[in-house]
Amino acid sequence: xxxxxxxxxxxxxxxxxxxIPVLVGSLYGAVYGSPLAHGKITKLDLSEALALExxxxxxxxxxxxxxxxxxxxxxxxxxxxxxxxxxNGMPVAFVVASTKEIADAAVKKINxxxxxxxxxxxxRLAKKNGSLIVPPRTFKLGDSxxxxxxxxxxxxxxxxxxxQEHLYIETQGAYAIPSExxxxxxxxxxxxxxxxxxxxxxVLAIPMHRIEVDVTRLGGGFGGKEDQATSxxxxxGLAAFxxxxxxxxxxxxxxxxxxxxKRNPYTSDYKIGLDENLKIKAYEVSFYQNAGASxxxxxxxxxxxxxxxxxxxxxxxxxxxxxxxxxxxxxNTAFRGFGGPQGMFVIESAIAKVAESLGIDASVIQExxxxxxxxxxSYGQIAESExxxxxxxxxxxxxxxxxxxxxxxxxxxxxxxxxxxxxxPICFGISFTKTPMNQARALVHxxxxxxxxxxxxxVEMGQGVNTKxxxxxxxxxxxxxxxxxxxxTNTFRVANTSPSAASATADLNGKAVQIACNNILQRxxxxxxxxxxxxxxxxxxxxxxxxxxNQSSEMTWKDLIGEGYLKRISLSEHGHYATPGLHFDQSKExxxxxxxxxxxxxxxxxxxxxxxxxxxxxxxxxVNDFGTSMNTIIDRGQIEGGLVQGIGWMxxxxxxxxxxxxxxxxxxxxxxxxxxxxxxxxxxxxxLNTQNDNLAIFKSKAVGEPPLMYGIGxxxxxxxxxxxxxxxxxxxxSAPMTPEKVLLxxxxxKNV
Length: 752
Ligand code: MTE
Ligand code: HPA
Ligand code: MOS
Description:
Layout (H helix, E strand, L loop, with lengths): L5 H5 L16 E7 L5 E7 L1 H5 L3 E5 L24 E2 L5 E7 L2 H9 L2 E6 L6 H6 L8 E5 L2 H6 L3 E9 L11 E7 L3 E6 L4 H12 L6 E5 L14 H14 L3 E4 L2 H7 L6 E9 L5 E13 L5 H10 L9 E10 L13 H19 L3 H7 L18 H11 L2 H14 L3 E14 L8 E8 L5 E5 L8 H13 L6 E3 L2 E2 L14 H28 L6 E4 L2 E4 L2 E6 H10 L5 E7 L4 E3 L4 E3 L3 E14 L5 E13 L4 H20 L30 E8 L22 H14 L8 E2 L3 H9 L5
Helix pairs in contact: 6-7, 9-10, 10-11, 14-15, 15-16, 17-18
Bound molecules: ligand MTE, hypoxanthine (HPA) and dioxothiomolybdenum(VI) ion.
């Protein structure tokens, strides 16, 4: 089935926040962000800004009727600064004016005086200063300390990954409309409508039942709108509530890049030990997460780093500790993979270091240590592994022997171009790591003409979840997808939603749709059974026709609905789903946090130009574990998009903050993302088809985040190409691998 949005997307008719018609009399907002990264506010002078014609009002924290607080996990994030600022761009005031241009002009006329305080941007320094967001956490399996004693090969090192800008095509924004009796409706470009509703209720000091949050679709979220869409919506809500006028704010690209958090950068220390057979026996790792100025989602991101610290490998003795370090940067946040990629990069670096030191191919170590079913993860869950199946299938169908021979031949013939190859196995846990978040609801209405309308907690952000919801209902009812309409995500129709995140949206909401449809179907079957004088079990609906004991009757789906209405049965249902079997005990750091894992293997080949340091990605060949994909077109799109986004993070996307905590890479001219010229020349994707996972909707495993981690393979393929040119290259384990870094790596044999 094609993506149901493809038609309106292609014609430019899909409705994003900025396409919503604005009411007459609407006002426009703009945030004034702190010009300094840390300090005490001694004076805030709004007079010049207020004097501008068209400025309606400027809000500060003093105007907030309720709590000045939007922290999602811990309450450490004010909506607007009170006496201190903690990062450059931290909201201090919200200007509202009759036009967007006037609001922007007024922001420039605000004067502030700040007594500077020391600025910390380095997580290791923050840790040294005792500046942690939450207490450190340690996952432990076996006894790594003693296990090192029996290891033949022991290596230590540092591995670092930089942040990543989400660069959703649609920037952050919201539009709030006041309504009678102190209620408010807000259109928000958010992955978490309930988060917006809850925080707005706290800030305005009104109950949640007065706040309707409505989301049509997002022009991308990638985690950046899981929590960080909230503030903009609350600003609009606050102003609309107090002014009794609709208020809109949609950020321009530079505001968005400057004021929002990104993927958490990490710097990590590891020690790895292997026995004489190259089995990994012990692994110790300390992760220093750069959280930014407040918690946001960083504590949850940190947790997922620990869950994925051993990637696809079985390691019997693990001690993994993670520190969430408070710095004077914008609060970093969820980004596709949610800390998993950061953890996986470190063990891949450790394995690469061992391989390079022993003069062998990393894939020899990787393959020997792949998880098998029955292996225990460091957090106690037992693996049902497809790691070997993916690896073996990839090696076979992509003919790895020939590929290696070609690369060896190329490298021996060419002095100034070198090729490199890498394997990247992945293993990603599906479920929110916070067990209570693994629930969802759906509201299904069947109208008397037989057409169906569905609301769920799922937010469509390009990942195709709405198409999958239509497929679920169409399959259960056995009616045409054209009969089914998915409504906007709305807190008045579906309450208490988890954000659309953790790759779990289709599973959670799809199961809720499935439950609701099955309940309606059961009632309909009973109606038909009465009419045909048989049991409900004898009734089947197939392609909009009613079957009695497998014989087609005269009755159509529409007739049956009409009959159900006359018999006064409910043609609506609210389905609720909670993933069974999940538990996690944080006091022991053990449990069964994931419904299942997604596995896969990517084989990447690259060519570097050893004069210029530039490179091309020749091919990425992937075997991905889809279970039984319910939509191969959408799932393929997710794999290709995730892969390219991961390659961007690992190669060209370079976030730069200066020592003052100012974002230097603050525009598309200074922050480079993959374009058509930098994507792999070929991407081959093979489906590993399995039937095991009943917790995946229709056994179709989650696909949103896992492919991002295939991009890590590009980093190591580039390393291998550099080493083919200069075996003594001193290049460190620090991503991204920009052409500049490649060039230094080619010609420097010590510590680049
Ligand atoms: N694909 C598109 N086109 N746009 C997005 O914003 N977000 C990713 C992934 N794929 C995203 C995307 C992220 S971070 C997640 S968690 C999942 O989609 C969320 O959707 P799912 O749970 O339906 O997979
Ligand atoms: N993934 C994504 N988002 C989340 C998670 C998670 O595991 N937990 C809380 N928010
Ligand atoms: Mo995705 S990072 O869980 O929104």
